[in-house]
Every structure is written in C-alpha cells, then in structure tokens.
Amino acid sequence: MRLKSILLALTLPVSIGACSQQESDTAATELNNLATANGEVPGNEGMAVTSSSAQEFANKAAASDRFEIESSKLAANSASSAAVKDFAAMMVKAHTDSTGKLKATLASDPSELVADDTLSVEQQAELNSLKDKKGAEFDTAYAAQQVSGHEKTLAELKNYAATGDNAGLKALAQELIPTVTEHLNKAKTLK
After folding, report:
1. CB atoms within 10 A of CB 39
2. N or C, which end of the chain is more exposed by having fewer CB within 10 Å?
3. Other C-beta atoms within 10 Å of 157: how many?
4. Which domain, by its residues, includes 15?
C-alpha cells in the first residue's frame, strides 16, 4: 500500500503538469485559430494577411490589373494634373504587361488555372466613383485609390510569395514585388 502511495505521489505532479501543458497548448491553438480566422498572422499583431489558393491569387491579380487599367484609362479625359496623367499612362502599360506575365505563367502551369478578372464589389464601386469625377477632384480620388490599391496588392504579393501553393505563381509574385513597391511610392507623391 505504501508503494502505491509513493507512486501516486510521484505521478500526480507529472499528470498535473501534462494537463497544464495540454490546456496551454489548447489555448494557444484556439488563439492561433482565432487570429487566422480574423486574417492575422500570429507574431504580426494587427497585420491582416489572408492565405490565398493559387486560383484565388490568380483571380485577385487579374482583377487588380483590370482595375488599374480601367481606372487609369479614365485619367486621360478626367485628370487635370500632368503628373496624374503620366502616372496613369504608366499604370496602363505596367498592368497590361503584368496581365501578360500572369497569363503566360498560367499557360505554362500544368494545373490549368484560368484567371478571372472580375472586379470585387469594392473595386467596382471605386471605379464607378471615379467616373463621376473631373479635374482636381478626380486627381485626388485617383491618387488615394492608387495608394490604397497598391498597398493591398503589395501585401497580397508578399503573402503569396511567402506562403503560396503554386511555384510558378509564387515566382511571379516575388518578381512583381519591386515593381508594385515602386508604383506605390510614386502614387504617394501624386497630388
């Protein structure tokens, strides 16, 4: 009997410790799941990043290019600033090139992905709001949308380059990061 008591006394702290560790692991897993569900990456508090599948990434990239091209084409007749018009012309060319790279990447991919360039509800609303603006009002709205759009695109590219599930699209995302960074920095200087 005494041996049983000693063994019980020795195993009790180990059992309690194991339970405590399990509760801690469960709490950490729940916190991690909650953060992931909210679009946050643990360790990057406040930094919203969502994972995209190859198809989702291809669609987002195609829609981003389409939005940039369509919104930038509006600048030819609606902008008053020469800097905005020049930037917009650069966007049309750069995003036409980007679309070509995306299509070439997808064409060489054995998974047979096809990009859908349908604009998101937010992109369509922003495009519609630009259509009603002229002159300085257009310039201000366009510049703000370019900064916001390029920030979102840059975050998406960095995320996919780091965590993407398609090697060809990961390489494309990595390749586009410097260009999108340059565009973002130029957009921030628009008046």
Report:
1. 11
2. N
3. 26
4. 1-48
